[in-house]
Amino acid sequence: MKTKQIKTLDAFIGTILIPVYETNAKSIVPIEYHGVTVSSKVFYGKKDTHYLVDKYDCTHIFIGLGKEIDYKSIKTIFRRIASKQKEVFGQTVALVFPDQFKADEVEAAVSGLILGTYDLGHYKKNEAHPFANENFELKYIAKGEIEEAINKGIKIANAQLETFNLVDLPPNKVNPKYLADWATQAGKKYGFDVTVFGKEKSTEIGLHSFLSVGKGSANEPQFIIMDYKPEKAKKHIGLVGKGITFDTGGLNIKTAGMVQMKCDMAGAAAVLGAMQLVSDLQLPYRVTAIVPACENSVDAHSFMPSDVIQSYAGHSIEIIDTDAEGRLILVDGLSYLIKNYQPETVIDLATLTGSVVGTLGYECAGLFTNNQELSQKLQQSGDAIGERLWQLPLWDAYKSDIDSEIADVKNYSGKPVAGAISAAKFLEYFTEDHKSWAHLDIAGVAFGDSEFAKTKHATAYGVHLITKFIENL
Ligand code: BES
Ligand code: ZN
Ligand code: ZN
C-alpha cells in the first residue's frame, strides 16, 4: 500500500473514512465533517458502530471510536471497516486522522486497514481487495508529521499477513521445505542470513530428538537457522518457534481436533514473521532464530511410545506419548541455539499443549520463565498491543513429572494435570540454566475464531509482541 498526505478534500471523489470519538447519544450538536451533518440520533461515535453517508460524490464512513480506545480495538475496528465494507471502496480512499491520534494509534489504524484485505479463501476465485493492489494509494489528512507511524503500521501488517498465510495455508502446501524456502527468500529480501540443515546434516550434528519426530513423514525435516546481524547491535536475542507443519499425534494418533493441526507451526510462523518485521524495521539488535520444522505423521518408520531417543544436548529421552512431539523438536532448537550462539535472552513460541487452553482459554498465552524482569517486559509489550501473556509457575515441585526410570527424562508425565507446566519443565531441562529464557505456550491464541471468518484462522500472535519486546529492550 502506498500513502499520500493531502491538505484538503476539495475536489476529492471517493470514500472518506472519518473516525470519531464518542459524543453523547442525546447530544444536540451533530457530528459534522466535509459538509455532512450526522445527528446523534443515528450516530454519535459509539465504539463498534459506523454510519455511511453518500454526498458530494463521496461515500463518507463515520467510524465510532468510543470515548477512549486501546491499540487492539483501533486495529480491529479498521480491519473490520476494510474487510466488511470492501464493496464501497474504489481506488480512491481518504482517511482523516483525528488530531488526538498518537503515533501508535496511527500505526494501529493503518495496520488494521491492511489486515482487512486478508481473505481466508486462498483457493477460491475471489476478487482481490482494492487495498491489496500494489498501486493502491491511501490518501490521508493529518495535523502533524505521521509518515513514520504510517510506514511502521504498514510493515507490521505486512509481516502479520505473511504469518496468516503460513498458518492458514494447508499442510500439503506448507510443509517443512516451504518454511525453509520462505525463510531463504525473506532473508534475501530483508537482509538476514539463513542456513538450513536437512536430514543428513541434522543427523551428522546430532539433532536426534528433532529427527525422531519427523521419522514417519514423507517430507524431509528442515532445521532452519536465521541470523539478523545489524552493525553495532545493542543486544543479542535468540528465538525458537515450533514448526510442526501437521500434528497427527503420531502413533498416539489424535482422536479429537486433528483437523486443526495445520496450526501447529504457528510458533514457527510467528518467529518467521518477527524476523521479517525486525529486519524490515532495521532494529539495532542481533536476532538469531531457529525453526525446527517437520511433520508428525504415522507410518512404519514412526517413532514409538517407549522408544528411548537421544538429543543434541546429550540427554536421553523416554517417549511416553508421540503426541507430545513439540517439546522434542524445541529442545534441540533451544540447545543448538544456546550452545552455538549464546544469546543474552532466549524466547520460544509454541502451540505446545491443550492444557494451556484449558487453563487460560483464548485470551492470553501461557508464559513460563524464571526471570521476573523478562516476564515483566514481555507482559508490558503484550499489554500495549493486546497480545496478552499470563505467567504460570515453573517450580521444581513439578520436576518429578518428567523423571524417567530408563532415561534422563520422559516427554510426558502420563497424568491429566498441569500439562502446560510439565511441558515447560521439560524445555527448561534443556536450557542449560540460561538466566534469561522464556517459553510462550500459544496453543490458545495462535489460531481461533473471530468476526473475520467462519472457521478458525491464524491470529499472527507473537509477531508484533516479540518485535515490540525487542524494540523496548
Ligand atoms: N499440538 C498439540 C497442542 C495443541 C493443542 C495445539 C490445541 C493447538 C491447539 C501438542 O503437540 C499436543 O498434542 N499436546 C498434547 C500433549 C499430551 C499428549 C502430553 C496435549 O496437550 O493434549
Ligand atoms: Zn502433539
Ligand atoms: Zn503439536
From TrEMBL:
Family: Belongs to the peptidase M17 family.
Keyword flag Hydrolase: yes
MF term (GO), any: metalloaminopeptidase activity
Naturally occurring in which organism (per UniProt): Flavobacterium rivulicola
GO CC terms of this entry: cytoplasm
Gene3D superfamilies found in the cross-reference section: Leucine Aminopeptidase, subunit E, domain 1 (3.40.220.10), Zn peptidases (3.40.630.10)
Span of domain Cytosol aminopeptidase: 165-466
Name assigned to this protein: Leucyl aminopeptidase family protein
Keywords from the named record: Aminopeptidase, Hydrolase, Manganese, Protease
GO biological process: proteolysis
PANTHER family: CYTOSOL AMINOPEPTIDASE, LEUCINE AMINOPEPTIDASE-RELATED
Family annotation (CDD domains): Peptidase_M17
